[in-house]
Design the sequence.
């Protein structure tokens, strides 16, 4: 094995990670040094920051207990293989880095929100855009850098160790399970607060959701941070880790004669195998370096339209990564087939982003708004149709990416090509998360502007930034779910290869998947049920919490003298507490399903049924999550289209607007809780299955 070359390739993502963290720290302190505005603005921002951090600390206490329990289970489960302590420790490292990136990113976002408002207050839209973008960059860079730092460091240490697969899989389980709880918990919080504030404010009381009289206003802005910054950050962090680990796992278990065909200058055997294992993390490091450059380019373009700047920031990195890969592969003696697979994923991800933007920001939302003129029912019907249509196109692109990535690879390495397509789709993670985190920062900025009564000229700037942020958030969700689908296909392939690798070593025949086998069919049906179970439980959780919030807001308006007239202060902390308790209690059941289901099916029904379960869950989960995310985005932007005066004769406050608000309340948990939760569910089940594969392979 050419250990020197492997070490050099692995050092690249480690160096990129250190640079990424350094740049993130620069942006963090730059944002903190900016002017904060008036005392009222700072007071509101402090409430949002304290509420966000209080939720995060309470959530982290729950996750700390969960992590200790899983550490113990892994320790005992793998003790017979001599890897119990190692598996548990790597799990904790993956979990800790996920929590760390979420903590730092949300801290930056809660500093950037009020400073974005202040920049808008001075009348400078470019400065407001730059402040929100810098705040988002802290999250984006920390997510990508910590993922590569953890994986790269462990790989460098254990590259010659036979326990390498356990190290990688345990790290991925730590990242994935924390992401599931963070995304679902944050999603329940943010959408319960959002739905409650919307209905109680806009529909019942006839005031804006960010009106300073609305008791739910602070909780709503807190939710943007815990759901769309910390939760989404954990989601993207986990996606990147899972994609890299899937590709590495396939290379580790693929037959040597197939792996040799990837190289053009004579690498064979162990040398070729470990070079193939190293490529995914090396190329992800290249992606991080490209993202850092593109973030600075986006900052330089801030004088242009915010929509143009952010759209370019999402698309340009994919093109640059393809070009860089095309130049680097021959220099490393690697076949350009790897570049083609990488490019298929990168371009496919950009296309999914554009498709998502179309269905959530252009003509389809105008049709949803038009339908709302005849009531909430017709608006909801059109929104459901938009979600279904977008799912067909997006999944077709994923299928094409998988087909191309498989077709361009040498014989026997098609699965590795699909995995590299997922790596290509996620190589620009840092800038995707930067643009995604920009959204809640600008949304918070608008809320602070409204609650501080800064006037329509300030709100005009923050509303434009927020409108673009809603679109980029929808693009980010589509991108995350599309990449999740490709990643899960890769993890599924890695699981089958790992099972057969262990069975071959034990002298057993390979596992052959046949659709007419009863265990496979049973697993398929179980897998098809689970996304609906998780989707239903999260929707119910949001509904219950929103009901409690609406009742509390109505009580405050009825019982606090002068609140309706703006002469008294609302009891915002009560709403924050209701949303926090609901999120932390209701996230346990759906989060546990992803961990318990593969373990139960694997040990009770065997590896064939578990393979069927994974296949059923990805087919149903990928389509359901895309449908929910895009339908929710369409309802949300249809409401904003009416609020911006797009529906002539039906202004804000009209019956059509109220109908659109109802559609948006349905769409809120669709796009920010259940849809993302289902997408993470299928990834978590896949990485857990990959981890336990050696334990169940011979059952």
Sequence:
């Amino acid at each position: 094995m050419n250990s020197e070359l492997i070490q050099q390739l692995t050092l690249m993502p480690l160096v990129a990670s250190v640079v990424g963290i350094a740049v993130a720290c620069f942006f963090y302190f730059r944002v903190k040094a900016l002017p904060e505005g008036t005392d009222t603005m700072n007071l509101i921002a402090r409430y949002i920051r304290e509420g966000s951090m209080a939720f995060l600390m309470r959530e982290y206490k729950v996750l700390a207990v969960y992590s200790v329990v899983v550490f113990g289970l892994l320790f005992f489960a793998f003790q017979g293989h001599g890897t119990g302590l190692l598996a548990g420790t790597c799990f904790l490292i993956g979990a800790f880095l996920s929590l760390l990136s979420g903590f730092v990113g949300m801290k930056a976002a809660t500093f950037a929100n009020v400073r974005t408002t202040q920049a808008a207050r001075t009348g400078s839209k470019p400065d407001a855009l730059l402040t929100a973008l810098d705040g988002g960059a802290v999250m984006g860079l920390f997510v990508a850098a910590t993922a590569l730092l953890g994986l790269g460091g462990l790989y460098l240490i254990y590259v010659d160790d036979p326990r390498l697969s356990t190290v990688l899989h345990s790290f991925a389980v730590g990242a994935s399970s924390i992401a599931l709880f963070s995304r679902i918990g944050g999603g329940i919080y943010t959408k319960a607060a959002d739905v409650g504030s919307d209905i109680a404010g806009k529909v019942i009381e006839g005031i804006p959701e960010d009106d300073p009289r609305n008791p739910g206003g602070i909780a709503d802005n807190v939710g943007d941070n815990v759901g769309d910054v910390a939760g989404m950050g954990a989601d993207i962090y986990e996606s990147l880790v899972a994609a890299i680990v899937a590709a590495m796992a396939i290379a580790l278990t693929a037959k040597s004669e197939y792996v040799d065909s990837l190289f053009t200058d004579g690498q064979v055997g162990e040398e070729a195998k470990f070079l193939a294992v190293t490529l995914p993390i090396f190329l992800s490091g290249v992606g991080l370096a490209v993202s850092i450059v593109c973030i600075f380019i986006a900052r330089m373009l801030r004088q242009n339209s915010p929509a143009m700047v952010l759209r370019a920031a999402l698309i340009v990195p994919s093109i640059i990564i393809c070009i860089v890969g095309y130049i680097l592969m021959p220099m490393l003696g690697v076949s350009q087939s790897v570049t083609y697979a990488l490019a298929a994923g990168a371009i496919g991800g950009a296309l999914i982003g554009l498709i998502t933007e179309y269905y959530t920001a252009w003509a389809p939302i105008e049709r949803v708004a038009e339908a709302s003129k005849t009531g909430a029912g017709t608006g909801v019907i059109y929104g459901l149709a938009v979600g279904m249509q977008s799912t067909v196109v997006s999944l077709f692109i994923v299928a094409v990416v998988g087909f191309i990535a498989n077709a361009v690879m040498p014989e026997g390495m098609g699965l590795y090509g699909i995995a590299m397509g997922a790596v290509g789709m996620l190589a620009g993670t840092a800038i995707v998360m930067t643009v995604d985190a920009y959204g809640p920062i600008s949304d918070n900025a608008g809320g602070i502007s409204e609650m501080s009564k800064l006037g329509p000229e300030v709100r005009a700037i923050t509303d434009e930034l927020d409108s673009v942020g809603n679109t980029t958030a929808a693009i980010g969700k589509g991108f995350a779910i599309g990449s999740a689908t490709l990643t899960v296909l890769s993890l599924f392939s890695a699981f089958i290869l790992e099972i057969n690798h262990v069975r071959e070593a034990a002298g057993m025949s390979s596992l052959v998947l046949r659709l007419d086998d009863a265990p496979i069919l049973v697993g398929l049906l179980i897998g098809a049920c689970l996304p609906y179970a998780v989707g239903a439980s999260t929707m119910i959780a949001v509904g219950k919490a929103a009901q409690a919030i609406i009742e509390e807001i109505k009580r405050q308006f009825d019982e606090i003298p002068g609140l309706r007239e703006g002469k008294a202060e609302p009891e915002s902390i009560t709403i924050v507490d209701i949303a926090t308790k609901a999120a932390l209690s209701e996230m346990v059941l759906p989060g546990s399903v992803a961990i318990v289901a593969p373990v139960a099916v694997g040990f009770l029904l065997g590896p064939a049924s578990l393979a069927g379960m994974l296949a059923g869950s990805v087919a149903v989960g990928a389509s359901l999550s895309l449908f929910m995310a895009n339908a929710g985005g369409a309802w949300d932007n249809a409401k904003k289209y009416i609020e911006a005066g797009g529906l002539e004769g039906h202004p804000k406050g009209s019956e059509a607007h109220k109908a659109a608000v109802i559609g948006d309340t349905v769409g809120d948990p669709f796009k920010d809780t259940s849809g993302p939760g289902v997408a993470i569910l299928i990834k978590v089940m896949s990485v857990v299955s990959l981890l336990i594969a050696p334990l169940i392979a011979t059952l």
In short: Residues 377 and 659 are 8 Å apart (CA to CA). The two ends are 34 Å apart (CA to CA).
